[in-house]
Amino acid sequence: MMPTTIAEASRLIARKEISPVELTQSCLDQIESENDKIAAFITVTADTALATARQAESRIMQEGPRTPLDGIPIAHKDIFNTAGIRTTAHSRLLEHNVPTTDATVVRRLAEAGTVMLGKLSTLEFALAGPSFDLPWPPARNPWNTDHFTAGSSSGTAAAVAAGLILGGTGSDTGGSIRGPAAMCGTTGIKPTYGRCSRTGMLPLAPSLDQAGPMASTARDCAMLLQHMAGHDSTDPASQNQPVPDFSSLIGQGLRGLRVGVIRHFHEHDLPAHPPVLSAIERSIDILCAEGAEVRDVILSPLLDYSAANKIIMNCEAAALHEAALKNHSHLYGALLRGRLIVASMLSSNDYIQAQRRRQELSQELVEMMREVDVLITATAVGEAPRMDEITTWDGLESPSFTAPWNLVGLPAIAVRMGFGPKGLPISVQLGGRKFDEARLFQVADLIEANNDK
User: Fold this and answer.
1) Do residues 301 and 402 share a domain?
2) What Gene Ontology molecular-function terms does this entry list (predicted)?
3) What's the CA gap between 362 and 350, in Å, rounded?
4) CA atoms within 13 A on the CB side of 64
5) Domain identity same for 170 and 89
6) Of 138, 258, 307, 378, which residue is 20 to 30 A from 127 by alpha carbon distance?
7) Cβ atoms 406, 175 nearer than 8 A
8) So what's the pLDDT on residue 192?
């Protein structure tokens, strides 16, 4: 049996009990077997991957692993530039786009020794889908292929859940890492805004976009983020902050940890389904049993955070796509074309008012984080919906549990919490302080460990 987590694979590779070539071939075999069903991959780079794995194997045999990620098979959301390998944003507009340089996070993960297996499905330009009028089909949920993955990092979540990769990259502008992680039963973190470089990552809304890792566990995400994070002078939003050991708190106790429950978010503002509410209460019980101090907290309504996020996102997306939409509208899928046309009707006043409200809400949430160490709420309202239930305006019709952390720029992680009555995954969400991703990994790992018992 091949390992299913990065942490386990890393240990076995270091002990020379498995080779990167064996692990890579196992993943490629799984892709060959399952990708036609779930459409997680747009491009598979099998030959390049095996060549990289052989290099890693030779290096490890002679010198030992370069990093804990040496020889680990991953893949990238297809909005990250990859030199010599097409980067499409899942759009006909970029169907033949082949970058000449790697995105910064792609380069950093390659330098850590990872083996890239290919490029993964996304919603078109990370905004609209699932679309069926594009050159590639949308990703499907591995737990039931009639159901959606959420978006936009849909292929990464599906590929991790189906065992096609051990981890991968995603981007998150309003929940695009955490939503798919929740729907597919994986873990995904949106780091602090500016923690990871976006150079070479195709933008959606630059004042909100953030790259981050997705994997099976919090520990695996910490290992990936370790080699994604860091200042990059070519990204104007990149923060010149030291990169800590993101795994350093995992396994430590929680005595004295202050946890705030934003109960009105998931009970009143957007009532979550009973299995999700039960999962949140289970998480709270786990944290209390470990010595955490838990109390309810009150913020502005979820709709305020979500509306500001969506107005800013859609205004910035409309501005980025204005020229292409005028000159090449026929190359867009119908869903994205319609979304961008509507977004272009938002006014500068709408954008300015949303940014004004953003400042107020940012101050509120940052002040709350002085009173608590971690916040908890839902990641999604329930289990994944069916593909044929997704409406044209999906994502605009109700608030989003994930939007507050994009709006304010604080880190947040989706934590897998088992399955609901339909046999599909459910999730809870933890939010943290600025640049305190290590704390989120600590708490998420403990919840996962107790939930897996």
Assistant:
1) yes
2) transferase activity
3) 18
4) 5
5) yes
6) 378
7) yes
8) 98
Range of the domain at 305: 258-434
pTM for this model (two decimals): 0.98
List Cα–Cα distances, 280 to 15, 166, 206, 232, 417, in angstroms: 38, 27, 32, 37, 9
Nearest CA to 240 out of 274, 200, 197 is that of 197
In percent, the amount of the chain with pLDDT more than 90 equals: 97
Asked if residue 403 and residue 279 are part of one domain, the reply reads yes
Could you list the active site residues?
Answer: 77, 152, 176
Give the Cα separation of 403 and 270 in Å (integer): 13
Helix, strand or coil, per DSSP, at residue 49:
helix
Q: Are residues 386 and 263 in the same domain?
A: yes
Q: What is the mean pLDDT of residues 302-315?
A: 98
Contact yes or no for 50/24 (Cβ under 8 A): yes
> Which amino acid makes up residue 207?
S
What does the pLDDT read at residue 392?
Answer: 86
Q: What does the pLDDT average to over 255-270?
A: 98
Amino acid at 171: S
- pLDDT tens-digit readout, 403-424: 999 999 999 999 999 999 999 9
Task: Name the DSSP class of 412.
Answer: E
Domain count for the chain, please give it: 2
CATH of the domain at 62: 3.90.1300.10
Based on the fold, state whether residues 217 and 295 are members of the same structural domain. no
Closest CA to 413 of 436, 433, 441: 441
> Is residue 391 situated within a structural domain?
yes
> 350 and 411 in one domain?
yes
